[in-house]
Structures are given as structure tokens and as C-alpha cells.
Amino acid sequence: MSSVEPRNSKPKTLATEAPSREPQAKGSTNPFFEPQNVLLFLLAIRLLNALTLHTFFQPDEYFQALEPAWKLAFGEDTGAWITWEWREHLRSAIHPAIFSLAYKAADALAALLSVDGARKGEVLLAAPKILQACFAAVGDFYTWKLAGYIYGRKSTCALTALALTVISPWQWFTSTRTFANSLETTLTATALYNWPWHWSSEVVPQISNAGSRTGGLRVRGDEFSPQEPVDEVTRLRRALLCAALATVLRPTNILIWASLTYFAFIRRLVTVSLTWLELATFVRETALCGGIVLLLSTIVDRIFYGAWVFPPYHFLLVNVVQSLASFYGNNDWHYYLSQGYPLLLTTALPFTFIGFYRSFAIRSANSLQQITLRLLSVVCLLVPAAFSNIAHKEVRFIYPLLPALHVISAEPMASFFEPLLLGHGLQPSSSVQKKRAPSSTLPTRLLFFVLLTINMGIAYYTTQIHNSGLISLTSYLRSEFSSSPSSTTSGSSISASSRPPPLRNMTVGMLMPCHSTPWRSHMQHPAMQSTPGILAWALTCEPPLRLNASEKAVYLDEADVFYADPSAWLKRHMSRDTPLVTRRDGSRGTATSFAPGFFAEDSRSDRMVHIPSNSNNHRRGRGGDDAQQHPWWTTRHGRRPWPDYLAFFAQLEPTLQSALRGSGYMECRRLFNSHWHDDRRRTGDVVVWCLDERRVGVAPGSASASASASASGGEKSPAGAVETGPEPVAVPEQDFQAIAQPRLERVVEKPFWKVRDPAP
């Protein structure tokens, strides 16, 4: 018996076949459920989400999106950190190219409004956040539309899917971050909504007129735009374009569409009546849309890389075939089941498992709703199973499945909480055959608020508290540069009176695990030839590229070498010249010529010969440009100069207090970061040491910052007492020659880390 209904019979439509789709209730005119109102609501939510996000998650948010975008927008020499993936052509440049347009627009807007300095920095900081918030809102919107297509736009299930995506802790934590996975998720949700699910069914919803543009194709009903229905070819093209773009961004996204194509078309070509016209249309449009996206990607990559490259090939070769991603960590085979799904779904996880069970247990083969849910469930189970064969696993890799998971979870959750959801023009779920007894309403209401509180608590903690110090650090450094007098103050009163002060960059060193903080996108202020800026370095973690198996087995990156023996690394890689300390009066010199830092007493003066102030070391230091003009900043070879600021986690503090004893570094800022961390190297506060007494204990940008810059004062001792030093005396430069030279003609000064107090 043929499963195809005759053309002259009344076609079964999705609206009549889907169990949850019942006739619209009279008078159900709640304006909230109008698509434009839902989209505006989601935009407002995600803008709030993006602009209040103040925590660090993973480096890819910045180094795989904003850093190359900064380079595209502002040029090669603007200090963007381009990681090894870009040098090896592993990433498509489409994603950063999108954010480079946001940077360009923000820069043009700032110029139009004559906004400069710190305010312009805030505009540049907000631009990619706003753009990503729009992407996130679109993803939420199409998740709701997919649920509305399956269950009915005004059903409690569609509202539940919308609520799930809005209050999801993972969505609140991740969706507005500039990960490629975040945009991939939005594109996946959009493609899933536009996917021709009805072509996989034995039901014949409607066949378009032979003379129309889509003649002979089965047409699905569109509850969201009944007055202007979208034709099938246009809808299919939307799905395929989004799927192709998501695959270019993250080649592993192809697993979703390969699974759907097999189960929806290839497998059902034999079992159900998929027409040859529909199959030919699908193949033709797949080739057309895939070719367009591939051509666009090739052109953008050619502009970015300066060569003809194919990033998806390099991505799969390095990460899958060579398994180089395992260098950044391996996980158990059950990671996605034991950690991935729980992190994605949190309190919705039990309802997801119920949804999986129902999608396979109910055998209503002619239901489009059931077929769609079953296909979504198959994809949500197969893709993590495939990813489980790769050693390196991350929750972000299965993030594009979250819209489908929310839709699957919506019906069981709506069934459970339906007494709280009915009303306001909503239709009841078909799975609830009778109204729940009033006695069960109170426990249900209490459970609902418990789950809501848990979700909101997790969302707040992860977006405002955990790992917040790393974002605060970049804000602090930006503010320090904007308010620091070192950019205008020379090294001594002599040079200040004789010539204009030189340009002075602010230098920063990050003694942290690699990529622990955002970079140029958040620090901003690149050091240019005509204007001062922030010069910074951090420990790296380059993977073992082009090494054999034995070499890979013993390979350690720079961060690993540092943490194996921090003191030895400092002796081997840092300058042997003593850092120059800036006093409260603006004068500069070594800790031995002024006062040491917090962590040493000045007990070395009787065992060291001080280099006179007219020596080359101090003559360079007087202008304040010794460190910034060090050849290391251009060659990146040799010993690094001591930076103005050192940032590290509190876990490293005892080691550095010993290794840098007497260096002159002082604690300028301590920023709360986390209560706990799974990486012991990142535990504790973020600590900032500096070589400028004027910055000690001064809140960045405060009124006291400028006052402390001009006020002379004593040095805080380890015990907290204040020792008042002698007032500095200005000496004319020509009188330096009259100063008596030391008796010793040869002066040898040990590096400060080799000088220790005598044993008691």
C-alpha cells in the first residue's frame, strides 16, 4: 500500500498532524507572541547579557576572533597577538572579518563624535560585544521558532523552549562571547528551523502548483508568516547557506548535516515517498549554496593570509588526523555524557533524557512532530559519540546542539509545569490528558522557583565573579596607561628642565599560563612610532609542530618550562640589569640607589658598589625609555627587559617574593579572581607589581592618582611603617662632571637576584 496520498485528496498538513497543534483559542491575542516582539525582547536580554559580562572563560574568545579582527581593522603593526593557528592556516578568516567591520564602524563613530582616549577605548570594547549580542538573540529567536514550528507558536512547549534558552546558565555564560562556536550555534539554529523536515515524512502536507516557482514540491505551513509564506526553495537555501557557513567556521559542524542528510533523505529515499524532484532540488541547492559560501571563504582567506589556502583541510589535518589538539589536554571517553551535557543543560538535563525517551518510544510514524523530534534526538546523540573518539574534548564543541536539546526538553518540561503556564492565550500540551490536581500545584510552583534560582545563581556567579580578575586586570592596565604620569614625566628634574620629555610606553609582563588574559582587544593603546602605548609580553604555549613522536613526548612549551622552575627561568630569560624604580617625585633609579621594594630591606648597600648617576645605565634610565627601546621588543630574541608592571596569580607570589627580592617591585594592585580553580597555577587573586611608587595603593583613575603622582613621600616598609627619605636635590647637568668619581675604576654589580642577606 502506497504511503503517498493521491493529489486530489485533502492533504494532511503539519498543522493537522502535529499532536500539539490545536485550533487557536479565540481571543488569544497576546502581543508578546508576535515574532517582532519576541525578537526585540531577546535583543534587550542579550545586550544586557553582553554588556554586563565581566569574566574570562577561554582564550579562543579573544585570540581566535578579536585579535585577528583587530589586525584586519587597524593594521599589522597595532599589537594584535596572532597565534599559531593563524600562522598555520587552520582558521577561516570570515569570523574575525565580521568583527573587524564592527571595529571599523566603532572607530568611525568615535571619530564622528570626536570621542578619544579612554572613552574611545570603551566604544571599541563594546562594539564586538554588541554585535555578538545580536547574533545570540537571533540564535534564541530561531530556537523559539523551531519549537513553534514543531509544537505550535502559542503552545506551552514553544514558550518553555524560549524560557529554557533565556534562563540557561550556559547561554548566559557563553552565547554573547565571541567564540566561533557561538556564531556556529546561531547558524545551526537558523538552519534547523528552515530545514525541510516535511520532506522526510510520509505525510503530504501540500503540493505547490505545477506552474509555480516550486512546482511539485511539498510545502509546509508557516504559522509565523501566514500572509506571506516563504517558498520552499528560498527556505531550503537559507538552511543550506547557514549550514555551509557554520561548516566553514567549524568544519566539525558537517557532522550535524551529514547525519540529518542521511536519515532525512538517503535512508528515507527507500522507505518513504521522497520524490525525485525533491531529491534533485536538494542536491542542486546544496551544490549551489555550498559553492557560494566556499567561494566567499576563499576570497576572504586570500585577503587575510595573502595566499590561496583552504583552512578546513588544515584544521582537520592538524586537529583530527595528527591529533595535535591533544597537546592542550585529553579527556575520558565519557566526557560529553558525564560533563558536556550536564554543563550545557544544568537543571534541564532530566527533561532532556525524558525527551530522548519519548522521541524514540512513541511510534506515530505519520506525525511530522514525532519525526522531527526523533531526527533531532539522533543528531544530538550521534555527534557527541563521534566527538568522543577525539582525545581533546570541550563542551563548546557540542554547543551547536543546544538549540535542538532545548526543543527536545521543552515538551517534558511543559508537561510537568503546565499548571503554571496555562493562560494568556497559551495552548495546552497534548501530552497532558487531564488537568493536574490543585494539590500538586504548590509543590510544582516551589520546584519551579528552586530550578529558576539555581539557574540564575549559576549564571550570575559565572558571568560576574568566577575568573573576573583577569578582565579587571586589562581594565586596570588601560586605566593605568591613561592616567600614568610616566608618559609625560622624565627621569629627573635635570632633563625635564633642559628638553621636552620623550615618548614613553608602558611595559607589562604576564607571568601566567599562556593566554590567561585578553590581549590587544582589551588592553588597546598599541605602541606606535608617533604615539606611546602599551608594550606587553606573556608566556607562550606553542604546540609541537613538525616534531617526531620522541620529540613530542619530551616537549615542554614556554609556560611549562617557567612553572617547572620560575627562578631559573627568570635568571635565564630576564635582563641582568636592575629594574629602574620611579619615585614619588618622578625621579628614577635602581632599588639600590633609592629604596628596595616591599619584599627586602636595604641591607645590600654595604656590600655593593653603586654605579654613579652619570653612568650609561642611569643616563638611559633618566629618560624613562630604556626598557621600551630594548631590542627585544622588535627581535623577540635574547633577554627580556624588566617591565613596568608584572602580573601573576597569587599562587606564584611566594616564589616571586624570593626570586625578585630587592628588585624594587612593589604591589600596586590585587584583584579578586576566583574562589577555586581546576588549574592550580591559576589559583588565588591576580597580583600586579610595579616599579612606580606613585601607583602603590592608588585606585586607577581616582582623584588621588594624580595627587600621588606629584606628592613626594616615604616608602612603605614590610611592617607598614613609613620611612621618610631625604628631599631630592636638583643638580644642573653640567655639574655632573664635578662630582667625584669612585675610587674603583672597574665596577662590577651582581644581578639583584644573586645578592642575598647574610646568614644570621
From TrEMBL:
Residues 700-721 have a biased composition (Low complexity). It is a multi-pass membrane protein. Keywords: Endoplasmic reticulum, Glycosyltransferase, GPI-anchor biosynthesis, Membrane, Transferase, Transmembrane, Transmembrane helix. The chain crosses the membrane at residues 239-264, 340-360, 372-391. GO terms for cellular component: endoplasmic reticulum membrane. Its EC number is 2.4.1.-. Pfam families: Glyco_transf_22. The keyword Membrane applies. GO terms for molecular function: alpha-1,2-mannosyltransferase activity. It is an enzyme of class 2 (transferase). One of its GO terms (biological process) is GPI anchor biosynthetic process. Residues 1-30, 700-730 are annotated as: Disordered. It is found in: Endoplasmic reticulum membrane. The keyword Membrane applies. Pathway: Glycolipid biosynthesis; glycosylphosphatidylinositol-anchor biosynthesis. Its main location: endoplasmic reticulum. Belongs to the glycosyltransferase 22 family. PIGB subfamily. Mannosyltransferase involved in glycosylphosphatidylinositol-anchor biosynthesis. Transfers the third mannose to Man2-GlcN-acyl-PI during GPI precursor assembly. This is Mannosyltransferase. It comes from Exophiala aquamarina CBS 119918. The lineage of its organism: Eukaryota, Fungi, Dikarya, Ascomycota, Pezizomycotina.
